[in-house]
From TrEMBL:
GO biological process: tRNA processing
Recorded catalytic activity of this chain's protein: adenosine(37) in tRNA(Ala) + H2O + H(+) = inosine(37) in tRNA(Ala) + NH4(+)
Family affiliation: Belongs to the ADAT1 family.
Keywords: Hydrolase, Metal-binding, tRNA processing, Zinc
Keyword Electron transport: no
Boundaries of every A to I editase domain copy: 52-383
Database matches in PANTHER family: TRNA-SPECIFIC ADENOSINE DEAMINASE 1
Protein name as catalogued: tRNA-specific adenosine deaminase 1
Pfam families reported in the protein's UniProt record: A_deamin (PF02137)
Function of the protein: Specifically deaminates adenosine-37 to inosine in tRNA-Ala.
Cofactor field: 1D-myo-inositol hexakisphosphate
Any one GO MF annotation of this record: RNA binding
Length: 384
């Protein structure tokens, strides 16, 4: 059982961690704002840990992507904290394999899993971008003195195939329930909004295809804890799971759609968007519990990388696809994991496809619930 006071405790622990454990590099300047997100492993109020944390507001445009796997395409805090969480999991897997003990992860009959009493909790300083952010606001119309309904607007555009925004006045401006790409200026992006990505994690787990080579069960989010921000319970539930009601087929024995608890706390993140903070911070901080030092990512690479060095290994953040993939490959071989595949296992894509049950469920979900989810260009995943 987790209670509202647990969630308040988690939110203040996250803010405190950001303020005291993370260094200044990568944090917003006076006029800038950012988003903060973290993943917490929880036993009880005395016993929990912040496994990963990230800030970030940016993502790359489609024209900026490449097929090397070295760039972080999506640097919203929620997405980076998940990637840093994967890094934390790989570190724990290796520690257990080397004879160490993990407080939150077990190793049983050749596979890893969360300990029975361990819950995964996600903290976000603000309502995730996209559908969850389309919420009614009530304003007094000064002359008529009656409430006029309007909504908080988002710059997140509906993806092709989904119902499109009507852009009518007030409540009619946006449609709800559509998959959307990330809001923001700059080159058009293919990255989906955080509402959509979190919704996907509620259906198929946080761990992704490749981590499923190590775990016997997917890792689902038990609760999403939000900082103080514009929020509407109904809209958040709609965006993160209710919009797929009636569209989820039987996923089988391993995967089970989870409806996380969504709880808004009164804890304020002082670097969030507000009157005096109007510019989105371009840098993103990436931290996980076993990292040596926080990393700062700008435009998909480590901060401070010169143009000449942009393809060199030291310019990569540890949570880009290529770095996570090479860790996975190294551990698959160190742990002597057997992966069955019809294809030759070499590329990132081939290791993803070899996660057979995960791919089966993902295909099922794309038949109806997520049918307009943009297909990743396989060429972008052809690196090895
Ligand atoms: Zn976002």
């Amino acid at each position: 059982m987790t209670t509202p006071s647990d969630f308040e405790k988690i939110a203040s622990a996250c803010i405190q961690h950001y303020e005291s454990a993370l260094k200044k590099k990568g944090k917003p300047h006076e006029k800038e704002w950012t988003l903060l997100s973290a993943i917490i492993l929880w036993h009880n109020e005395e016993n929990f840990t912040i496994a990963s944390m990230a800030t970030g507001t940016k993502c790359l445009g489609e024209v900026e992507l490449n097929d090397k796997g070295n760039l972080i395409h999506d640097s919203h805090a929620e997405v980076l904290s998940r990637r840093a969480f994967l890094r934390y999991l790989y570190d724990e897997i290796e520690r257990i394999n080397d004879g160490g003990i993990s407080k939150y992860i077990d190793f049983k009959s050749g596979k890893f899993r969360l300990k029975d009493n361990t819950k995964v909790i996600m903290f976000c300083s603000r309502t995730p971008c996209g559908d969850a952010s389309i919420i009614p606001k009530q304003e007094e119309e000064p002359e008529a003195k009656r409430p006029k309904l309007d909504i908080h607007r988002t710059g997140a555009k509906c993806v092709p195939g989904e119902p499109m925004d009507e852009r009518a006045s007030g409540m009619g401006y946006h449609v709800t329930c559509s998959l959307r790409t990330k809001p923001g200026r700059g080159h058009p992006t293919r990255s989906l909004s955080c509402s959509d990505k979190i919704a996907k994690w509620c259906l198929i787990g946080l761990q992704g295809a490749i981590m499923m080579h190590f775990f016997d069960l997917p890792l689902y989010i038990h609760a999403i804890v939000l900082g103080n921000c514009p929020f509407n319970q109904e809209c958040a539930e709609r965006a993160l799971f209710k919009r797929f009601d009636g569209k989820i087929p039987n996923l089988g024995k391993v995967y089970n759609k989870i409806e996380p608890i969504i709880y808004k706390t009164n804890t304020q993140f002082n670097h969030q968007q507000m009157n005096n903070r109007t510019v989105a911070c371009g840098a993103a901080i990436i931290w996980w519990k076993s990292c040596k030092d926080q990393q700062v990512c700008v435009n998909g690479l480590k901060q401070g990388v010169s143009k000449k060095a942009k393809d060199s290994p030291k310019s990569r953040c540890s949570v880009c696809k290529l770095e996570l993939f090479s860790t996975a490959q190294r551990l698959i071989s160190k742990l002597k994991l057997k992966i069955e595949s019809n294809e030759i296992l070499k590329t990132y894509e081939s290791y993803k496809q070899a996660s057979v049950e995960y791919q089966r469920v993902w295909t099922l979900l794309r038949e109806d619930a997520l049918k307009n989810w943009p297909r990743t260009d396989r060429k972008l995943n052809s690196f090895s």
